[in-house]
Amino acid sequence: MKRASLAHIAVVIAVLAAVPLLTASNLVLNFLVVALLIALVGQGWNVLGGYGGQYSFGHAAFFGTGAYVSAILQTRYGVNAWLAFGLGIAGGALIGAAIGALTFRSGLRGSYFALVTLAFAEVLRILASVAPITGAGVGILITLDLRPQAFQFQSRAPFYWIILALLAASFLIVRLIEQSRFGAWLVAVRENEEAAKAVGVNTQRVKLAAMTISAAITAAGGAFYAQYFLFIDSGIAYGPWISIEALLAPIVGGIGSAFGPLLGALLVKTLGELTKLVTGDAPGLDLVIYGGVLILIVAFAPQGIAGLIADLRLRFARLRPRLPERAHG
Amino acid sequence: MAEPLLRLERVCKRFDGLLAVDDASFAVEAGRITALIGPNGAGKTTLFSIISGFLTPSEGRILHRGAEITGMPAHLLARRGIVRTFQVAQPFAGLTVHENIAIGAHLSRRARADALAAAAEVASAVGLGDLLGRPAASLTVAGRKRLELARALAAGPELLLLDEVLAGLNPREVAAMVPVIRALAGRGITILMIEHVMQAVMRLAEQVFVLAQGRIIAEGTPQAVVGDAAVIEAYLGHGAAARLSGAGGAHV
Q1: Edge-to-edge strand order for the sheet containing B6-15?
Q2: CATH, range A6-328
Q3: B174: Cα within 13 Å, side-chain hemisphere
Q4: How far apart are CA B77 and CA B106, in angstroms?
Q5: How confident is the model at residue B1 (pLDDT cuts 50, 70, 90)?
Q6: Looking at residue B250, what is its pLDDT?
Q7: Residues 6+ apart with CB under 8 A from A84
């Protein structure tokens, strides 16, 4: 599979960074902030699922922990919002390591792993919906304080650049993984765990490290969400919706490729918005669309859009030398 | 006499009621090619899985250079230099031949470039040099067997456990593989091989252990072992040795 080069990453980020200079439309920026947020969360999933082959159905556990840790520290303990953001990421990583240690040590794989991660996320959701510290059923409202030092801004553009910077950081992390021994081992675990063990790969540790990194990236998305919308409750933070978004973006975009989650998030979110234009805000219809997209991708482009592009490129490369021949004939 | 590279002491493995390995003791001397043979279902692969850390024995001890390694997980054994191949080749199917071998090479090399360079060297040593860019899934059976060997070799083993690397190959492919294995031994790698292709065992092995129904029933040089009455009976059934020696004069 084609690896992400620094030049590719730089170009994509630069193009995206220019968008707020071209439009001040809140509608466009809001759409893109959400799409990039999903891309970031999906990139987190991609590290564990795409590169490591461990399909989690419960990335809400990390998203929600990032969001709650950050929001609780700010509202209840007066911690600075930026520091709280960092601690939210650390909290998510910690939960990732804990869930990873429990599931991988018990040897859970495949659909069992998926179900248990889903269960962990659901348990956290239920706990958050009753515990006083998480605001129980009411949720947490972060006090409006539109100053940069409080991680709040008058306009959407700064938020947009921050989520873009986070996404850029996630690209660099994925690129580092792709080029490292750890990344080679992670892919080996995905391809054949027994064979990996036989050549000295500590598969437990590799999976645990991948889950921790994955959780940290996804938690960054959660903490950002809290800052952007200034409100979270158990259904938002730990709800299954975000677990689905987290896996849908990389699967649609191209699993195990650095740009997959971004491509997938942009496509899925665009489709979602288009449906809303046609049908209004019918509840649950976005899920129907997601399901349809997922079926199409799995059936016709199992490597996602990134795989499809690589495929088409290969076909064009094969076609090109034939063209002059045809001219002769 | 010096401590052997690998020693098994009274190793047993029970799967519920089934005794797959029954009181097996033997030693593998450093620098040699040792073969483990026996009829299907004798427990050879189980024994291999125990030695390489994929299974823990129910009883008994395994010693590597005199140090106990019983029950040590596979990745730690690989780091000690004990590396196995699999009877049914287990490639990293989605990766190229080059990337497959590099995973083995990463064991002692951190940098990606070093691992890839070492992998390319190993590939040409086992005759996969021209296939580096091919997806592992596209290889033939013979190619997969070579890949299995190359990946294990890239991990820099001191003791290489080869589980039927010749099985499923045609005679021409076997003939091509035999010198490859002999060359490894020439480089100082100790080899313990499970093999069904007797012609190859006769040509390669210096020491042979015969496993039947979980027990070691004979040991010695290949020539001594194939003439052993207990071995012939294990392969061909009770009384076969006597019938063969009775009929031998008439036919041979």
Answers
A1: B18-28, B6-15, B59-64, B67-68
A2: 1.10.3470
A3: 17
A4: 15
A5: low
A6: 45
A7: A69, A70, A71, A73, A74, A223
Q: How far apart are CA A98 and CA A208, in angstroms?
A: 9
More confident residue, A118 or A2: A118
Closest by Cβ to B106, choosing from A184, A190, A198:
A184
Chain A CB within 8 Å of residue B88 CB: no
- Report the residue of chain A nearest B75, measured CA to CA: A200
Contact B97, B132 (CB under 8 A): yes
> Which two tokens mark A187?
């892919």
Chain A residues near residue B115 by CB distance under 8 angstroms: 181, 184
- Flag whether residue B154 sits within 8 Å of chain A, measured between CB atoms: yes
Rounded to whole angstroms, the Cα distance separating A44 from B70 reads: 39
pLDDT at A272: 83
Strand B207-212 and strand B215-220: pairing? antiparallel
Considering just the CA atoms, what is the radius of gyration of chain A in Å? 20
Phi then psi for residue B159, to 5 deg, are -125, 120
Q: Which CATH superfamily is domain B6-89+157-251 in?
A: P-loop containing nucleotide triphosphate hydrolases (3.40.50.300)
The residues pairing with B218 across neighbouring beta strands, listed in sequence order, are B210
- Round to whole Å and give the CA distance between B105 and A188: 12
Residue B208, C-beta contacts closer than 8 angstroms, at least 6 positions apart: B34, B35, B36, B37, B201, B218, B219, B220, B221, B222, B225
Mutation site for B-interface testing, chosen from A199, A257, A303 by largest number of B Cβ within 10 Å: A199
Question: What is the torsion angle, in degrees rounded to the nearest 10, for the CA atoms of residue B160, residue B153, residue B78 and residue B60?
Answer: -10
Name the residue among B19, B90, B92 with its Cα closest to residue B58. Answer: B19
Q: pLDDT tens digits for B147-202?
A: 999 999 999 999 999 999 998 899 999 999 999 999 999 999 999 999 988 888 99
> Hey, where are the domains in chain B?
6-89+157-251
